[in-house]
Amino acid sequence: MNRESGGLVDRFLCYMPTLSPDHQLLTYGMFFPPHFVEGPSYEYMLYDFRKSAIENRPSGVPADDPQRVGRTLYPPLAPGQLVRNNTGVPEDQAHFLVSGFFWAPNSRTVGFVDQVNRGLALVRVDIPAEGQGDYRVYRAEIDYPPNAKAKGNPARSGFGRWISLPNTKVCVWPSPLAMSPRRPGSSPTFRRGA
């Protein structure tokens, strides 16, 4: 939306959109149909509000495409690859967002927790100032007991684990609500803490 005229500038479909503190950048999961699709996978994307609709799409993608929008943050693309399909992905290669996105106050670093094949990783992406180079991605595996069963407050149960991110903490513990037929067993749930 144009702030001055109130007119629509762009629109697209996405999951978990999170605005940077300076209101210039938006991180989100690329859209995939929520039902009746094989092998969905999260592609973590970045939309830059300082750019036009066409500048926020890969080369050759029309400005009115509601799905292939933004620049891929993670997982990294192969050299020369502009966009990746996020459906039809083999189960052992599919990515799932199991936390929200957490921005650093300077709007140049974003963190989140990614799950691939039941393994968890804390991902940090440093976003340089415009024209100052490419993203830097840091990934750290999280040691997490996949079959732990926690009840009540995870901090008291001994099964929870706090992970520090800029200006926040994320607590991890298994939750039956996060289970799906695609990923059997306990899956981690992340909550924002103080």
Strand content: 35-45%
Radius of gyration: 18 Å
Topology, number of strands: 12
Tell the overall outline.
globular
Helix amount: under 10%
In N-to-C order, the SSE pattern is EEEEEEEEEHEEE
The average pLDDT score comes to: 74
Parts with pLDDT < 50 across at least 5 consecutive residues:
147-169, 171-194
Structural class: mainly beta
Structure description:
With 194 residues, the protein is mostly beta strands. It is built from 1 helix and 12 strands, in the order βββββββββαβββ. A hairpin with a 5-residue loop joins β1 (14-19) and β2. 25% of the residues are buried. Helix content is 2%, strand content 36%. Strands 5, 6, 7, 8 and 9 form a 5-stranded antiparallel β-sheet that branches. The radius of gyration is 18 Å and the shape is globular. The chain has a domain at 14-145.
